Amino acid sequence: MAHKTLINGTSYDIKKGRTLIGGTGYDVKKGRTLIGGTGYDISFGTPVGEIAVGSSVYMNVNGVRKEWIIVHQGKPSNLYDDTCFGTWLMLMDIYTTVSRGTSYFYFGNDNPMGYEPRCNHDIYLTDTFFPLLDTEIQNIVKTANIPDISYSSNYTRTYPRKVFLASWAELGSRYWAGSSPTPLKYFEANTNAKRIAYMQVNGNWQAYYWALRDHLVESGDRLFLPQVSTDGSKIEFTLFDTGIRPLLILPQDGAKANSDFNIIPA
Length: 266
Description:
Strand order of the largest sheet: 8-9-10-23
Oligomer: single chain
Radius of gyration: 21 Å
Structural class: mainly beta
Number of helices: 3
Number of strands: 25
Order of helices and strands: EEEEEEEEEEEEHHEEHEEEEEEEEEEE
Largest sheet: 4 strands, antiparallel
Helix content: under 10%
Shape: globular
């Protein structure tokens, strides 16, 4: 429940507090109060880093409250640098679809391999989706150096992003023979059911395809973005519009979930 106090006739929300014990000040993180003979918990929010993987929290997208899953705490492996350390959140449902269009890349110095050269999916996430988050949330999302781990286990290219797509390896499975998965905790069981996502189509919720940031050599020199199918398996080609299911990382001590499970700055 929300808590308020009255100061000079004006009501204010209570977001945090401190108390003095033995001359030392301590933050008040929780407690109980008695109202009308009933005890109520008082909580000023739980740091996101203390919330279990698999839990649901909520953040607005374009002013609409949306469910997000905590899919990892920390960083998945040593392939990720410390910018990737934090609380990883994935949107529960597919938000929209984006056409593949020119979402392919060529080997060569002028067209470096990977998701970095601003494919349609990346353009949408960075230029359209991210600004739909509340400004106070945008300000605390980490800029993480996301590794490209799909094409080769020895390939260490990274690119800085605040919002990005998942890799197949992060969903718990090998991308190609000999590669190693680096699963996010939520997906480490490597079950298709965990990977199924839904979106509204003509007013009805149904399982739908969603895009990955991995790369697939299709014709010897071109790389395409594969996708997760409606049954949670991987499809090797992106032949039509694919769903967008964003990932982002919050600092573990820089954001909290309030009593309604809404994410707020710490």
